[in-house]
Amino acid sequence: MSSTGKWTCKRDHETQVTILLIIAIxxxxxxxxxxxLKII
Length: 40
Prior knowledge:
This protein is mainly alpha-helical and 40 residues long. It contains one helix and no strands. The chain crosses the membrane at residues 17-37. Keywords: Membrane, Transmembrane, Transmembrane helix.
Protein backbone atom coordinates (compact mmCIF):
# COMPACT_ATOMS: atom_id res chain seq x y z
CA MET A 1 0.00 0.00 0.00
CA SER A 2 2.72 2.47 1.02
CA SER A 3 4.92 1.53 -1.95
CA THR A 4 2.02 2.19 -4.32
CA GLY A 5 1.50 5.59 -2.69
CA LYS A 6 5.18 6.44 -3.12
CA TRP A 7 5.06 5.37 -6.77
CA THR A 8 2.00 7.59 -7.36
CA CYS A 9 3.74 10.55 -5.73
CA LYS A 10 6.82 9.96 -7.88
CA ARG A 11 4.68 9.81 -11.01
CA ASP A 12 2.94 13.08 -10.08
CA HIS A 13 6.31 14.73 -9.50
CA GLU A 14 7.65 13.52 -12.85
CA THR A 15 4.48 14.80 -14.55
CA GLN A 16 4.92 18.23 -12.92
CA VAL A 17 8.56 18.37 -14.05
CA THR A 18 7.58 17.41 -17.60
CA ILE A 19 4.89 20.13 -17.66
CA LEU A 20 7.40 22.70 -16.36
CA LEU A 21 9.89 21.68 -19.06
CA ILE A 22 7.23 22.00 -21.78
CA ILE A 23 6.24 25.46 -20.47
CA ALA A 24 9.90 26.55 -20.32
CA ILE A 25 10.51 25.37 -23.90
CA UNK A 26 7.33 27.12 -25.11
CA UNK A 27 8.35 30.36 -23.37
CA UNK A 28 11.88 30.24 -24.77
CA UNK A 29 10.47 29.60 -28.25
CA UNK A 30 8.15 32.60 -27.89
CA UNK A 31 11.12 34.74 -26.83
CA UNK A 32 13.16 33.54 -29.82
CA UNK A 33 10.26 34.32 -32.17
CA UNK A 34 9.85 37.84 -30.72
CA UNK A 35 13.60 38.51 -30.92
CA UNK A 36 13.68 37.17 -34.48
CA LEU A 37 10.81 39.45 -35.51
CA LYS A 38 12.55 42.47 -33.95
CA ILE A 39 15.78 41.65 -35.83
CA ILE A 40 13.86 41.28 -39.11
